[in-house]
């Protein structure tokens, strides 16, 4: 594949996502909104540990540790001792963390609704399916390359 059209389109998408995220830089540390959402999702299923977040985001544990520390300083995340392993701690969103995440998601939904206002429901469904497939395939190809 030598056609640069796809690569250029990916750069445009990444730019759009960066611009969308930058609107929340005053309330959420840069790059941490996804970590905040992941902690909330883990909370629903059970205790959330930093090692789980690192694995889920395919990031080094030190990167997650810095993000969690920033979220803690911002009053968005709290750590508590893990009752099953005293050496570990579990992560929980604070009330402020829940409110900030909810507000950010509402803004994301508003921006997406505005951007897609001329799209049909089928076009939105097709885009959603294609993005999910693309992300899945890209992650799987990266995993295969790393294993080789």
Automatic annotation (TrEMBL):
Ranges of residues in domain HTH marR-type: 1-136
InterPro entries given in the database record: HTH_MarR-typ, MarR/SlyA-like, WH-like_DNA-bd_sf, WH_DNA-bd_sf
GO biological process: response to stress
Gene Ontology MF term list: DNA-binding transcription factor activity
Signal sequence coordinates: none
PANTHER family: MARR-FAMILY TRANSCRIPTIONAL REGULATOR, TRANSCRIPTIONAL REGULATOR, MARR FAMILY
Protein name in UniProt: MarR family transcriptional regulator
High-level lineage: Bacteria, Bacillati, Actinomycetota, Actinomycetes, Micromonosporales
